[in-house]
């Protein structure tokens, strides 16, 4: 295969996987809220942690002006960015590893990881957000290798734009500061890069000001107490957070975690000028995801997982110098079997029976342990059937019913049940 076509084929490979495994019916979670906004075709003029300004307005633009159905739009807004992000990840890894099979294998490992695959299978902002993060990482590394105006300017631009997608990306500002400090001798280029970032970032406050929204709501939701709850956690709760983040790592990267110690040694030994930036990028994003007090914090780990997979790749590279690990590339395609096996084992345990019954309305353990959502239980049909459950899903029911009311103008109830 021509090396130039590898990114293209990698993109097509994951585009096919993600599209085929995408939700058959609108799935549970925050996606219904996004879908409802897109169905209404009303652009948002608020830049808040829950509005995801660039993500939502891009989806509304595609629906309103490109005549794409809202559900298809939201599917594509997860599937296409996910495939593109994995392609960009390959390019990022190639900045460190010249061997194509290693870069491809590592890209596949992350692409088939539970967290990333699930984000690609449902309606969520995280794969769209991943594009801007990986672009920031690519041009940051390029800047540390060659601090040209182009590289530094794009670094500032991509970090600034990422804030318009998800405010979580402020956790990458410390890494950007480290980058600027390391390249402090390139004063002119640094000034232009920092100015572009500041302009794009500060524009968020201007947009909120014009919309008569207090500046603080650029960072705060006004509806949840997640930040307060995060700082109120006791020592035992913090330990549980750490344990949970480790279990997420195991479920996402399983046997490939054994290469992490070697990878850390490799990056510190042979890429010392890049080590501070890589370390800070990981620590701030990983710690935020670990301790942020929300029930679905697993999705916030994606930015740090880009660094994890890079370190795994460097570990493989280090060990491959002594042993031929090329056969390891075929192991990556067995990752789905790991999820299937884990699900079957968990389903056979007596301890999980109550949980399966309690979460049956979502699809039981399969919803939580299998990353794909093909043939899933839909939240619209669940809402219309009005089945009683223990969980508080009133907001989801409300959003679903509002969506149904809009759709009934051009679809009957039976057709809507299948969405």
Characterization of this structure:
This protein has 419 residues and is mainly α. The protein folds into 2 domains: 3-323, no CATH class; 342-417, no CATH class. The protein has helices at 6-20, 31-40, 53-65, 70-94, 100-111, 114-121, 126-145, 149-163, 173-182, 187-210, 226-232, 235-253, 260-270, 275-291, 302-320, 328-331, 335-348, 353-358, 365-369, 379-385, 394-407, 413-417. Helix 14 (275-291) packs across helix 15. The longest helix has 25 residues, at 70-94. The chain starts with 5 loop residues before the first helix and ends with a helix. The model has no long low-confidence stretch (mean pLDDT 91).
Give the termini distance in whole angstroms. Answer: 40 Å
- Unreliable parts: none
Sheet of most strands: none
Name the beta content range.
Answer: under 5%
Number of helices: 22
pLDDT averaged residue by residue:
91
Structural class: mainly alpha
Radius of gyration: 22 Å
Total beta-strand segments: 0
Number of domains: 2
Helical fraction equals: 55-70%
Question: Based on CA inertia axes, which overall geometry fits?
Answer: globular
Sketch the topology as an H/E string, one letter per element: HHHHHHHHHHHHHHHHHHHHHH
Keywords:
globular; 419 residues; 22 helices
């Amino acid at each position: 295969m021509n090396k130039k076509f590898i990114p293209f084929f990698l993109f097509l490979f994951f585009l096919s996987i993600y599209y085929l495994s995408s939700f058959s019916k609108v799935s549970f979670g925050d996606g219904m809220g996004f879908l409802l906004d897109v169905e209404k075709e009303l652009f948002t003029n608020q830049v808040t942690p829950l509005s995801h300004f660039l993500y939502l307005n891009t989806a509304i633009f595609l629906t309103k002006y490109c005549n794409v159905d809202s559900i298809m739009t939201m599917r594509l807004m997860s599937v296409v960015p996910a495939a593109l992000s994995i392609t960009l990840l390959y390019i990022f890894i190639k900045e460190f590893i010249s061997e194509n099979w290693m870069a491809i294998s590592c890209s596949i490992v992350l692409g088939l990881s539970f967290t990333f695959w699930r984000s690609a299978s449902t309606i969520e902002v995280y794969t769209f957000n991943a594009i801007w993060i990986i672009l920031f990482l690519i041009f940051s590394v390029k800047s540390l290798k060659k601090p040209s105006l182009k590289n530094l300017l794009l670094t500032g631009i991509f970090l600034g734009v990422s804030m318009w997608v998800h405010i979580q990306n402020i956790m990458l500002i410390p890494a950007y500061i480290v980058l600027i400090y390391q390249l402090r001798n390139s004063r002119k280029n640094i000034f232009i890069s920092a100015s572009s970032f500041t302009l794009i970032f500060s524009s968020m406050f201007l947009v909120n000001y014009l919309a008569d929204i207090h500046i603080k709501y650029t960072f705060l939701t006004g509806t949840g107490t997640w930040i307060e709850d995060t700082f109120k956690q006791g020592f035992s709760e913090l330990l549980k957070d750490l344990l949970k983040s480790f279990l997420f790592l195991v479920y996402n990267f399983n046997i490939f975690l054994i290469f992490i110690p070697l990878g850390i040694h490799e990056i510190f030994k042979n890429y010392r000028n890049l080590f501070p930036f890589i370390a800070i990028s990981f620590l701030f994003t990983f710690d935020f995801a670990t301790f942020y007090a929300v029930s679905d914090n697993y999705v916030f780990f994606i930015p740090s997982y880009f660094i994890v997979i890079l370190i795994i790749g460097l570990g493989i590279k280090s060990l491959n110098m002594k042993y031929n690990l090329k056969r390891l590339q075929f192991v990556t395609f067995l990752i789905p079997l790991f999820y299937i096996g884990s699900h079957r084992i968990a389903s056979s345990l007596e301890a999980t029976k109550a949980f399966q019954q309690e979460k049956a309305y979502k699809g039981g353990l399969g919803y939580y342990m299998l990353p794909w959502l093909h043939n899933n239980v839909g939240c619209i049909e669940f809402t219309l059937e009005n089945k009683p459950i223990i969980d508080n899903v009133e907001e989801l029911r409300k959003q679903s019913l509002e969506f149904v009311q809009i759709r009934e103008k051009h679809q009957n109830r039976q057709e809507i049940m299948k969405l």
